[in-house]
Amino acid sequence: MNTAKGDYFKKVLFWLLLPVVWAYANLVLGWRVTWKGKLPKGPKILVANHPSTIDPFIVALLARRPARILIKGHIFHTPLFGFYLRHAGHIPVIPGQGGEAFEAAKQLLETGHTIMLFPEGRLSPREGGFQDTRTGAARLALISGAPVIPVGIHLNRRRLRAVPSTINGEESLGLFALGGPYHLTVGQQMQFAGSLEDREHVVSVANTIMQRIISLSHQSAAHS
Predict the structure, then answer these.
(1) Per-block mean pLDDT, blocks of 10 residues, the chain (224 long)
(2) Which domain holds residue 141?
(3) What's 201's domain CATH number?
(4) Burial of 121 (0-12, 13-18, 19+ CB in 10 A)
(5) What pTM, to 2 d.p., does this model score?
(6) CB 183 within 8 A of CB 153
(7) Long-range pairs, 190-193, Cβ under 8 A, ≥24
């Protein structure tokens, strides 16, 4: 498939899925969004906490355009979801090949795309709270110069349903929200600069991003 046809097919997949996700967000989750700032035009990095498996699809609604997600590579091998991820242009993060994923994301940002990732690197603890912060979002922000848009999610954890599965021999546990409330608070854009070689600076940026997400998540909880 040539580049033009490939891009067209990715857009078709997005617009086909959009009404399904929109209906789920409204009818099942009763989702609400609080905006602290507008989304900037052009390339941007959406970052959020990750309490449920469906978060990437709901957060993508905020962009109102296709957003490319950095997501664990083994998920691409699921029968239906994997087909969508592969053909919609999302980016697999494979152990030992993280550099390739970030280079792909950087190139997409350079051409004006929206990138989405979750600094926890996996689902938040089911009982509440947050995972330790990964540095991927910070490194991508520093290497690209693109603005970071933090999003804080709060949902009703009592309405989460665990769905275990085995993907390519790897045990996986999905958490699906089967009811609301589901509230997102979108923060003002954050801009970062500095060298990737400065490890302390990268970690500081990563922690700054995650602390902002946590603060927004608490604000979402207060409005739920």
Answers:
(1) 54 75 94 94 96 91 86 66 68 74 90 94 92 95 96 95 74 84 97 95 98 98 87
(2) 3-222
(3) 3.40.1130
(4) middle
(5) 0.89
(6) yes
(7) 190/141, 190/147, 190/148, 190/149, 190/150, 191/145, 191/147, 191/148, 192/138, 192/141, 192/142, 192/148, 193/142, 193/145
